[in-house]
Target: GDP-mannose pyrophosphatase
Amino acid sequence: MTISDRVRIKDVRVLSDGWTTLKSTTFDYRRANGEWQTQHRETYERDNAAAILPYNRAGRTVILVRQFRLPAFIRGYDDLLIEAAAGVLDDAAPEVRIRAEAEEETGYRLHDVHKVFEAFMSPGAITEKLHFFVAEYEPHMRVSAGGGLEHEGEDIEVLELSIDEALAMIADGRIIDAKAIMLLQYAALHIFR
Model:
């Protein structure tokens, strides 16, 4: 039996269709014991996205970005978030979009991007799946100051940190972005061993 055999969608209503689409779905779900149960869930229909960690193996450094995030602020986080550069795919292939996003946000024109994994970041409420990448950078690859696109409301600071400092920032709570944490841990295990 597949999951499709265990789910019957009964009703889908659009509650909001702004920056993302919020839907309310009523469905029947066949539990492991065989009984059907009616459930109601709200989901944010968000396009898939990609995130990247540029790294310099010889210098033992990584590039991260720092920016304002309203949801974190609403939850009481009174600082800018330190994150991995990321963006929505906008119907482009993940490898193509992440190169463009990295250049927009960090100012680095990355050549060889390597996909390392995919993950649903909040599968209980958000449909978005992230494609995670790493790419080696050299100082000569910096073609602009980065900072993001002003017309999209981006006001991004570019950070070059040692891998050791970045990992310490996870431990002491200065880095709390899941994308950054996952990519930094990947780098610690597979790049900077």
About this structure: The mean pLDDT is 96.
